[in-house]
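Page 37, continued from 36.
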């Protein structure tokens, strides 16, 4: 991906690549953009599955998000723990559901 890409990466995602006390990301811009696109695509793809789970399983929004988070964190997943949390937060935003509370917060 070129540096003149039209994709606007939110600060919340760039923060995943900032070491504590640092202002510059610890990964190249192209890598961050590629990871962002993967995470954003995943959040978008999970919207209908989350809605379906909410009604089909008669569970709460929090439980839907928790289960999806567990799936994203499973061994062999393409997502880091921080990316998994970001995806679930973005999913909640897309669904207009309350933001989930994670037991362990990752930067």
């Amino acid at each position: 991906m070129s540096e003149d890409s039209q994709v606007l990466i939110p600060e919340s995602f760039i923060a995943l690549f900032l070491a504590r006390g640092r202002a510059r990301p610890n990964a190249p811009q192209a890598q961050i953009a590629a990871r962002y696109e993967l995470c954003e695509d995943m959040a978008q793809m999970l919207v209908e599955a989350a809605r379906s789970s909410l009604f089909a399983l008669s569970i709460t929004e929090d439980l839907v998000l928790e289960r999806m988070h567990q799936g994203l964190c499973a061994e062999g997943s393409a997502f880091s723990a921080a990316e998994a949390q970001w995806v679930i937060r973005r999913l909640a935003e897309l669904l207009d559901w309350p933001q989930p509370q994670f037991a362990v917060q990752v930067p």
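The chain has one domain: 11-95. Flag for discussion at group meeting. Residues 11-95 form one domain.
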